[in-house]
Amino acid sequence: MDNSILRRRRTELVGGATVLLALAVLPLPIGDVYTQNLIIITILFAGLAQAWNILGGYCGQISLGHALYFGFGAYVSTLLFVRLGIPPAFGMLAGGAVGGAGALLVGWPCFRLSGHYYAIATVVVGEIGWLLFLNWDYVGGATGVYVPFKGDSWVALQFRTAKLPYHYLVLGFAAATWIAAFLIEGSRWGFAWRAVKDDFVAARSLGVRIFPSKMAAAAISGFFTGMGGAIYAQYVGYIDPDSVMAGALSILIPLPAVLGGVGTLWGPLIGAAVLIPVSELSRSYLGGSGRGVDLMIYGALIMVVALVRPQGLVSLFGRRRGGADARAA
Amino acid sequence: MPALLEVDGVSKSFGGVAANVDISFDVAEGEMLGLIGPNGAGKTSLFNAIAGEVTPDAGEIRLNGTRISGLGPVACAAHGIARTFQVVRSFDSMTVLENVMVGAFARARGAREAMTVAADTLEFCGLLSRADRPAISLSPPEKRRLEVARALATGPRLLLLDEMLTGLTPTEAQEGVALVRAVQRRGITIIMVEHVMEVVLPLVSRAVVLNLGRVLTIGPPADIVRHADVIRAYLGDKYAPAA
User: Fold this and answer.
1) What radius of gyration do chain A's Cα atoms show?
2) Could you tell me if B36 and B24 are in contact, meaning their C-beta atoms sit under 8 angstroms apart?
3) In 10 A of CB B225, how many CB atoms?
4) Is the Cβ–Cβ distance between A144 and A87 less than 8 Å?
5) Do residues B131 and B44 share a domain?
6) CB contact under 8 A, B93 and A197
7) In angstroms, rounded to a whole number, what is the distance separating the alpha carbons of residues B156 and B79?
8) Is residue B61 assigned to a domain?
9) Residue in A202, A263, A320 closest to B89 by CB
10) What does the pLDDT look like over A150-180, one tens digit per residue?
11) Do residues B121 and B224 both lie within one domain?
């Protein structure tokens, strides 16, 4: 009886290890750079969506300003490298810390708002961040910052031609977010956060502290998002406010989680595996004029899922997450 | 018996409406107390004040001698007060067992212990067979049991039941009564809010009758039903015995 939760968690751990192994060998036979790049971006967004899911899915706080924390991570690690010579392997952690701190700073006033108002506030804060960085000369303003190449290195996270190291870097990142979500799901925090999401009045009557729960979820979510930003910056070698802090990114980060299944362990990965390749392929087939068409395809996909499978694609796999079953039954 | 809960001169207004006016009573350890009155008498407001959801404008509420009024629901829960809700609240993305685990974490050190506590509590409440069902799939009477189980899992000293038996069929209500009696036998003090007198009076040792925000009378059920003011409040002047 009470082993059902343990059994489910063991199954998920085995599933996680299997997927990790599969993704580790996946790039080995693939030679062309285009596909390698596609897989890297997909895994990166699976990790980012999982980071968002920790706050938006488990704790139910819908943030539409995660580009801010992503940008913080990208800028912090890049500027530490460029200005102070601190290698991105450490800068990545600093970027994550600043991302987490950013999420706490935004959360401090905004978590006093409830529901849709929190989401709206995060949109506004995200846009403010983008504008500030666009006009801030020290961080390169609108021209952005180039990451100087200093030779292949795991410390600097730079590899001139090889894609494989980046593959393992993003895989490690995505795995870390998955493990974080897995641990949260089984812990006091996870139960408290889901209770906050479902019914905060009932939650606090049981002694769950609402505000600290949201802040803890935001800090962890912001940390991983910032880390992802730092990795992205090293991967593309150039950042500017439009590429790492734009509002579109704040939509792109949660989308895989929403499509795959919010508040589930596998939703972000499944969503990213569908969404990112579809968007990349449509962009390359439709060429330069197709800018925007990929977003239409996103929109259509989300609408179809919302209509047919409101619990997300993950529910197709029969993986039960509380209410999902009851509504489907 | 020493008083576990002391309500001492509590008043609360919402806007210009006085929901509670200078309310005082004690609840003894292990007692089952009814809180009754017609609609709009101020039962829910007082109930929420004891649960920490509402801060009284005046007066004090003490649990075991410690002031708890104004501390908020989380602190009240930590002091050992648990409650159910008039309109049932469940965590619908979770299973029944997981719902109760949220409560169990209030005293359990880790997830495994919380799971054991939750399973034991579900068994006590007769819901163990539903443990792995989504909470949303439960029937209304089962959901009320789930609320009781979740509240009990926190290990409370005082359990507040808000219209737990209202709207149930006679059979369901009987099962509910049996559960409430079992809870009391565990030594947990209970305050039951009901607006239907015949449901609550057979259960409790004493009842507090509220009307228009004030205490009308406090006493054993036998006295309550004969009390002229109570009859007047419920049925109107016509039925009140001549003074």
Assistant:
1) 19
2) no
3) 14
4) no
5) no
6) yes
7) 8
8) yes
9) A202
10) 777 887 788 877 888 999 999 999 999 999 9
11) no
Q: Do A2 and B118 lie within an 8 Å CB cutoff?
A: yes
Whether A2 has a pLDDT exceeding 70, the answer reads no
The answer to whether B123 and B81 have CB atoms below 8 angstroms apart is: no
Q: Which domain holds residue B147?
A: 89-155
**Do B61 and B166 belong together in one domain?**
yes
pLDDT for A318 beyond 70: no
* A212 touches B at CB < 8 Å: no
User: Contact at 8 Å (CB) between A238 and A145?
Assistant: yes
Q: Is residue B177 part of a domain?
A: no
Q: What is the mean pLDDT of residues A262-291?
A: 83
A191 in contact with B, Cβ within 8 Å: yes
Residue B34 near residue B192 (C-beta atoms within 8 A): yes
pLDDT tens, position by position, B8-21 = 999 999 988 899 99
User: Do both B151 and B192 map to the same domain?
Assistant: no
In chain A, which residue's Cα lies nearest the Cα of B129?
A: A1
Q: Which residues contact B148 (CB under 8 A, 6 or more apart)?
A: B84, B125, B159, B161, B164, B179, B183
Strand partners, B95: B134
Q: Is residue B215 very low, low, confident or very high in pLDDT (cuts 50, 70, 90)?
A: very high
Cβ–Cβ pairs < 8 A, chains A and B: 115
Contact assessment for residue A264 and residue A320, using Cβ atoms and an 8 Å cutoff = no
Of the candidates B51, B58, B2, B57, the residue with the CA atom closest to the CA atom of residue B26: B2
Nearest to B43 by CA among B34, B52, B35, B53: B35
Q: Cβ contacts (< 8 Å) between A206 and chain B: which residues?
A: 77, 82, 102-103, 106, 150-151, 154
Residues B56 and B122 in one domain: no
Cβ-contact A86, A242 below 8 angstroms: no
**How confident is the model over B122-143, as pLDDT tens digits?**
999 999 999 999 999 999 999 9
Q: Is B141 helix (H, G, I), strand (E, B) or coil?
A: helix
Our count of domains for chain A comes to 1
